[in-house]
Amino acid sequence: GTAIALTNCAKTFADGTRALMPFDLSITAGETLVLLGPSGCGKTTILRMIAGLEFPDAGGAIHFGEDDVTRHSIEQRRVGMVFQSYALFPNMTVAENVAYGLKVQKVGKAERDQRVREMLEMMHIDMLADRRVDQLSGGQRQRVALARAIAPRPRVLLLDEPLTALDAKLRVRLRTEINALLRKLGITAIYVTHDQEEAMALGDRIVVMQKGEIAQIGTPQEIYRAPKTPFVADFVGASNCLKVDIENGRALLGRVDVDVSRAWNANPATDGLSEIYFRADGLMLCAPHDAHFTATVEAVSYLGEKLRVTVAGIGNDAVIVDTDPDSVVRLGETVHCRLVPEKLTMFAAN
Ligand code: ADP
Ligand code: MG
């Protein structure tokens, strides 16, 4: 069922900043919902409204299951929170930090010790139980923060860019562990990030936000394969954009035309000026007789599992194409390219 529902929620701050336009959003029990968007788009404000740290403008309502919690304080809502900065109690041990929420809930000592031990084991920090948190690394602190937030069995776990401060390798590792943990425990979670890869990896559904509004809600596959707006396409990694003229379902590109009636998204290729968005896999290097056009190599980066080639001479902007890492591609060389119609997303150009 629905764990959390926000209805007609908008947020205007005291200084007049319109952080969020009115929106509806519901989160299913046990689901991990990711809020994804650039800095300043209102992600943290939504999280703080769910926590009870901010209240929606008049007319908005927040329900936890059947309960109207719109005016409830954070203490009444029983939410768990994890932030980018650890916000642990520095003068307490790891175990004391994790036990804190259970003490507040007046859980008896025996059960408390048991649950703290379970949480520490689950987060692989049981050997750190008696350490003070100021003696821990960033990754260890974030494990403690997660254990502390989950131990009191919150109705919803709210995570605001919890991995942003960690180095890349640790970020991927912890994200995998968090993913497994949320599913194992069936926790309802809302996870805020500006990192599209993290959003894809963690979300059952992703809410893409732009300037205080929801641009699209969908599964990672839906967001990736069928972005509804150019903003979503661009933000979730379609780095290439070509402006083309469409006539009878075919894109006219210089001397050649390409059948784009099979483009990925639902927007039919309507005649007129259009924008084609695609990722590095929407274009291929190919033999001359298969080519839609030729282009000049501007940059080459070896990425291990692939060779990433930037080519110019197709439309106005340079585009990126990935190819076999063992192929030899030289700067300034002329290459032959073809578009992969199934991997294109089309929008009418304004
Ligand atoms: P995000 O988390 O996506 O980066 P925020 O929710 O923090 O975005 O902020 C959304 C907008 O609201 C931003 O323009 C921000 O400057 C503004 N904002 C956030 N908190 C306040 C506040 N307390 N007073 C005024 N403006 C605020
Ligand atoms: Mg934020």
Automatic annotation (TrEMBL):
One Pfam family cited in the UniProt record for this chain: TOBE_2
Highest taxon of the lineage: Bacteria
Family matches, as Gene3D superfamilies: P-loop containing nucleotide triphosphate hydrolases
Keyword Transport in annotation: yes
Domain annotation ABC transporter: ranges: 4-236
UniProt keyword annotations, A-Z: ATP-binding, Cell membrane, Membrane, Nucleotide-binding, Translocase, Transport
Keyword ATP-binding: yes
An annotated Gene Ontology molecular function: ATP binding
Family: Belongs to the ABC transporter superfamily.
PANTHER family named among the record's database cross-references: MALTODEXTRIN IMPORT ATP-BINDING PROTEIN MSMX, TREHALOSE IMPORT ATP-BINDING PROTEIN SUGC
Protein's UniProt name: Spermidine/putrescine transport system ATP-binding protein
